[in-house]
Every structure is written in C-alpha cells, then in structure tokens.
Amino acid sequence: TLVFLTSDNGPWYLGRTTGLRGRKNETFEGGMRVPLIAWWPARITPRRIAEPAAGVDLLPTALALAGIPLPPDREIDGIDLGDALLRGAAPPERPIYYYSDRALQALRLGRYKLHARHGVFAGAPWSLAIAPLVPQGPWLFDLDRDPDEAYDVREKRSAEFDRLEARRIAWERSLAENPRGWR
Hints:
Structural class: alpha+beta
Oligomer: single chain
Order of helices and strands: EHEHHEEEEEEH
Distance between the termini: 32 Å
Number of strands: 8
Strand content: 15-25%
C-alpha cells in the first residue's frame, strides 16, 4: 500500500513557519509550503527531495505507480513524481501556481516566484475578523536566496519578472477559454 501524508496549507497563527513569510490562506511560502511524506514499504527509500511538488501531482503519481493511464479527455495539471520517489531523481522544472480561492496570486518557476498584485493581510492575528487586505505587489522573489520572500528583485531581474508575468497571463487566459480543462 502506498500512503501519502501531507497538508492543505501552512499553519494558522498557532503554528511555526520556520521563518517563512505568510500563514494559512496566504500565498506566501509560509502559507503554502507543507511536508509530503510518501510511504511504500520495500519500494520507497527514505530521502529528502528539495524540489517543489504540488497537491495536483498526487493523482498522476498514484495512477502511474498503479500502471493506470491518465484520463485522455481532460488536462491534468500535475506531473508524475514516481522517479523522484522511487529513485530520488529531480522532478522536471515546471510552473507551480498559487491560488487563494479562485484567484491566481503567485507563480513559481525554478528559483523565482512572481506575486501578482493582491491583497495582503494587514493586521495582528487577533484582529483577523476586522483587519483589511491591503493590495500590494507585484513582486518577484528569488527563493534560493530569499525563501522568506522579504526582498523584491523585480527591478534587478526584470527579464525573469517579464517571463513569469507572461506565463501567468497565458495560464489565466487558457483557463478562461477552457475553465474545466476538457480536451
């Protein structure tokens, strides 16, 4: 039996984000990074994989490991992580999309993460019910050098910002044209 153990979001205000910015319901790394543990006796050797994965990867991974093809009638957003889990291979670099409800707020590709302009919580934890979301951004963060998303490098890395912004716009356009992902 293959078992996946993960979480839907980072901690609420009583948990630790190990110094990362953000909390549950926020698209900063502290609100999105969670562990993924895959356990499959005699098949998966314990190891740490540093490259990001996403919840949408669980379906294609489980189907591939079970020898079942992906459904041909719809787009599948995730990738098969089987080689990473079984052999420790790095998953291929691809964009990871960060949503808050139905709003795409951020996009990560490799070491860079683009945040579109969006509301950011502006209050103390006890004031959650009355604190406003203040529109901020856009930003570009280099997660290799700045995993807590403290320093905007958009001006220094304008080509990366433009590349990720173009991908974000194309992704949103493709969803608007085919919201359910049918082929």
